[in-house]
Specification:
Blueprint lengths: L3 H8 L11 H10 L14 E2 H6 L10 H9 L8 E10 L5 E9 L4 E6 L6 H9 L6 H13 L5 E7 L1 H12 L2 H5 L1 E7 L11 H7 L3 E6 L14 E4 L16 E2 L2 E2 L7 H16 L2 H16 L6 H6 L2 H12 L3 H18 L4 H6 L4 H15 L4 H31 L4 H19 L1 H31 L6 H20 L6 H32 L3
Parallel strand pairs: 4-5, 5-6, 6-7, 7-8
Antiparallel strand pairs: 1-2, 2-3, 3-4, 9-10
């Protein structure tokens, strides 16, 4: 299936005068603004898209940004478009702010004002969450930007992806009525709506008919704080939560490939978030979000990338910091977990547990919890438990042979073998080294099998034309390969950091697999009318 990169190749030779502005053009410009252009652009400097590409050695690209900019620059449709009024603000002090916007001038004397969504900075993520109880600095800056860059009788389209879509809607709602009249459309590409408690309903109604909300079929972030606007649901080639990335939205001709409804799994998550927001007042939201991000900031990491690369030690800091949170913040988190559990408990977990496919994942879930709870001792505990299990089996066999010998009066070679084995296992348990070595070896075998299995699925998925689901499986395969190597490296040693990292991985993969089993069982029960 086609994406925006395909669209640029197919429609790139048509100027905006030859083929009018489309919703796909809106998505392209919403993705374009993610490119950090401060090294070559400013509010006082204007360049064409082609000129920005020519200065690419001064830019730092992430993911597919370079491919997007190259395709735009080489096209008739975008290459000569003028870019101006580029504003980028990033501050960590005080409330903090992550904001960027740019004006793209179109040949028909109109402009598209693109607002950047959330980047990987912790400040940016914090602003997203804070939208649930207050007006954040980026929203105020969006209003200021509109007031300062709009001019004369020029017509404008506003838009953005993720938080950028929210900023476009908020800026349009709060700007002067004279400016609102010059707005053609407001595009919100899978961005959250406006918190109902903070919305000026009269002002919102003045712009509601101009809002175009576009979301993928697995939309979670874009379903927060829905304001009753109509949605266009489009198909994506990415799996699950990765559908938030607009680079994978599917296009047919000059428009999106539309679907009738949201994914059933995504509706499940949305219902949990909606119910939690309904049951948490503004003060509770503020306390929980403030203390959660204070815990993240205690690691001194500036971005989610730094936090993830920091390893278990940084997450230990987060967990220790969360322990000292206010009781109301803890109760808010507990309420969210309770709501999640209530949704899951509508399915018979006992039936799920009895499923042959689910049982190993429940076992791995408990092993992951063990690793995180006792990282310094979990390897030895697991290995010793396994040896004790074998020891118990050997003793049972010995007792059986002893009973047969008393009945028959004949000594059997099996009794000698199991007696010798019992002594050997007992000595291993006392020694302590072999249980640890065995546990790490077993982990290594599991991770090797997981890497092979996920890698094979990734390869099979990649062979299917247009199917990008293999990316997630490939990442999982690489992670499992890394843990396999580390298991062999630390085979005879205790490494708490490795155990915490392995425990986190086991919790994630077992949680995902158990979740799949629960959803499957839920669908079966609903199909039977239970």
């Amino acid at each position: 299936m086609d994406t925006i990169l395909t669209y640029l190749r197919w429609r790139g030779d048509l100027s905006f005068l030859a083929a009018p502005f489309t919703e796909v053009d809106n998505l392209i410009l919403s993705e374009f603004v993610y490119l950090k252009m401060a090294p070559v652009l400013s509010e006082d400097k204007a360049l064409t898209v082609k000129e920005v590409w020519e200065q690419r050695e001064n830019l730092k690209f992430k993911n597919k940004q370079e491919l997007l900019l190259k395709a735009m620059a080489e096209s008739v449709r975008y290459g000569s478009l003028k870019i101006r009024n580029y504003r980028e603000i990033f501050e960590t002090g005080g409330e903090g702010i992550q904001f960027a916007a740019v004006e793209i001038c179109l040949p028909d004397e109109s402009s598209y004002l693109a607002f950047r969504g959330t980047d990987l900075s912790i400040v940016g993520w914090k602003e997203d969450f804070c939208m649930g109880y207050k007006i954040v600095p980026a929203q105020k800056e969006a209003v200021r930007y509109l007031e300062e860059v709009t001019e004369g009788k020029r017509a404008y389209r506003l838009g953005g992806h993720s938080k950028g879509g929210n900023l476009a809607v908020y800026g349009a709602m709060m700007c002067e009525p004279v400016m609102q009249q010059r707005i053609i459309e407001i595009y919100n590409n899978d961005g959250p709506g406006l918190c109902q408690e903070l919305v000026d309903q009269e002002k919102y109604e003045a712009i509601r008919h101009k809002i175009v909300k576009i979301v993928p079929e697995f939309s979670v972030f874009g379903q927060l704080f829905r304001n009753g606007e109509q949605m266009k649901i489009v198909k994506s080639s990415a799996p699950g939560f990765l559908q938030h990335d607009g680079m994978y939205w599917q296009i047919d001709g000059a428009g999106f490939v539309e679907v009738g409804d949201l994914d059933r799994e995504c509706i499940f998550y949305n219902e949990i978030f909606d119910e939690w927001l309904e049951n948490a007042d503004m003060e509770e939201r503020e306390q929980f979000i403030t203390q959660f991000f204070s815990a993240l900031e205690s690691t001194d990491a500036l971005s989610m990338d730094e936090l993830l690369k920091g390893g278990p030690k940084k997450w230990q800091k987060v967990l220790l910091s969360m322990k000292s949170t206010d009781h109301r913040a803890r109760s808010t988190l507990i309420r969210f977990l309770r709501l999640t559990w209530e949704r899951i408990s509508q399915v018979s977990l006992w039936e799920v547990f009895q499923e042959r496919k689910a049982m190993p994942w429940f076992a791995l879930l408990w092993i992951g919890i063990l690793f995180l709870t006792f990282p310094g001792y979990s390897g030895r505990i697991l290995g010793t438990a396994a040896f004790l299990g074998v020891f118990a089996y050997v003793l049972i066999k010995l007792l059986q042979y002893e009973k047969q010998r008393r009945q028959n009066g004949a000594f059997q070679n099996g009794e000698l073998f199991f007696g010798f084995l019992a002594v050997l296992i007992f000595l291993c348990i006392i020694n302590g080294f072999l249980p640890l070595l065995s546990a790490n070896a077993a982990l290594g075998i599991f991770f090797a099998y997981r890497a092979y299995r996920q890698g094979k699925i990734a390869a099979d998925q990649r062979l299917k034309a247009g199917n990008r689901k293999g990316v997630g499986y490939a990442v999982d395969a690489l992670a499992a390969s890394g843990f396999c190597i580390l298991s062999l490296m630390f085979s005879g040693n205790v490494n708490a950091d490795f155990m915490m990292a392995a425990g986190t991985y086991l919790l994630v993969v077992s949680g995902v697999e158990i979740g799949r089993c629960i959803r499957k069982k839920g669908q079966e029960q609903r199909g039977r009318g239970l």
